[in-house]
Amino acid sequence: MEYCAGKTFRYDHASVQTYASVVGKAENEGPYGGGFDEVIDDNKGGADTWEQAESLFQKKAVGHVLQKARLSPDKIDLIFAGDLLNQCVSSSYGLKDYYIPFLGIYGACSTFAEGLLLAAAMVNAGYADRAIAVTSSHFSSAERQFRFPLNYGGIRPPTAQWTATASGAVLVSETGKPPFIRAATAGKIEDMGVNDQNNMGAAMAGAAYDTLKRHFTHMGSHPQDYDLIITGDLGLVGSDLLHDLFARDGIAIESRHKDCGLMLFDRSTQDVHAGGSGCGCSASMMCGHFLKRIESGELKRVLFCATGALMSTTVIQQGGTIPGIAHAVELTSY
Amino acid sequence: MEYCAGKTFRYDHASVQTYASVVGKAENEGPYGGGFDEVIDDNKGGADTWEQAESLFQKKAVGHVLQKARLSPDKIDLIFAGDLLNQCVSSSYGLKDYYIPFLGIYGACSTFAEGLLLAAAMVNAGYADRAIAVTSSHFSSAERQFRFPLNYGGIRPPTAQWTATASGAVLVSETGKPPFIRAATAGKIEDMGVNDQNNMGAAMAGAAYDTLKRHFTHMGSHPQDYDLIITGDLGLVGSDLLHDLFARDGIAIESRHKDCGLMLFDRSTQDVHAGGSGCGCSASMMCGHFLKRIESGELKRVLFCATGALMSTTVIQQGGTIPGIAHAVELTSY
Q1: Which of A42, A131, B57, B90 has the fewest CB atoms within 10 Å, counting from its CB?
Q2: Domains of chain A, first to last
Q3: C-alpha Rg value of chain A to the nearest Å
């Protein structure tokens, strides 16, 4: 079969107008604590269930974005949202009271980049004046859905990652100011044959490699042209694999590469094994840390590549593998 | 809170180039049998599990679309896909071998309209030359995920709908020929307080009403301006509710309204209670019946409004409600 190059979309009229993040206790105790807009210390915020708590994180992240932009929800034309829960319920229940036209997306932990890509595309093409992209994850709702009930106390292997309890939201519009969203490349589904739901990083590394390579080719750019190449949540295992894959092409990507999964928590003091994961991991690192630095010009050109493991417990139980996907979004301060 | 009108997107450069549908045995025994591209008589097609079978339906639908267009997968810039299964696995596993840039979407049974809306937007704006939208559903995989294991033999109440075993796919590009995709309106999440997972129609009717009304307002059109207003799978209960909601505005929509859920099966001879449902229901009716008639000019102006019940068993078990959503896409022969 012929190799499908796809396209990299170019944007001239899309900026991140405002951004916000809401995180749980452990996330705020990590190296980037203090940079988030709101911390929900008991990870529940008065909700009755973990699912409702995750919805609350998403609702609050969008609330902060609107407040910062001094806009009421009726001024937003479109919202792209998705999450890890079955039927993306954190999004639908978290956002229904805003009553904003809603397009649900699913890309596992790549969801934040998919939302950014689509929100920027719709604003850049003039379909929407203002579009929001938002996502979330929650350790407790994810763990019980994908692995074991929390009370079971299952042992986590070293390759396991820790699902972030966090949400991040951005409002995209044409402000003429940074952070500018300049380009985006949609990922393909890559199946590396991994079938261990405690080794997500390995399942996603190939997808990140493919998307990044295509993005560089289409943009005529090289990893060294970027201040940073930020992956979503490859963690320790996946990051090493990504470096190896680029090394085969003679490219040393390590010096420019940061992984949100290796940043959100302090792996030496926090018991997160191979790093953080979940849609909220890269969303909160982007909205709580990186976007500020692009806005200020400290970072001039950044490639954000969120990675997702398209894992299903049903398929795993049937002996299937975990395909990965990754979407890339290029942001600049100029 | 201020009422959010949202926007209706207009398209001048988007047509359905080819379309295809693959259905199961019961669907082909319904009133529109014989119009589908392929029938998988045992609903399984050699797959080991129902989930794999559903993936196969989707893979085949895309295969037919490519074959009709005489294109190899590498000529497709983008594919929008989603389905009812947790983590949308019919889509990811069904499509991964095509290796086409993939954007996952989730809108429950409204997914086909969401895919059409986004594929047309991306082609119309010039981001993609060719984009596919595809979705599927399968009675056996849906029933065991959302309700009871098949072997349990649960009794279905009269309001229950029958999930279609079917897939539909369209290839969108600028052909300059009908069916033209002219406009689309993204829906909002509407929660009517329904908490009965055997009464999806009632959960979705309010969303359909809201989206259709906004579409008419933005287009300056009236239900009588359309040859048909086609809803996805409101079924008997939801269709009656939709008629009632419009009747309150003094609009008799019945004469123009058709519901795919009431068309796919023959309710007098097939035991489907309140009608068909599932992402594949409206997708197969559109691709197996309506698009041909728009292409030929027999139908000149059609408004397709697929409806989704954003139901989650977890949330239902926690005492939550089932919010609905509906997206509208306007198609013309001229």
Answers
A1: A42
A2: 15-173 (3.40.47.40), 180-332 (3.40.47.40)
A3: 18
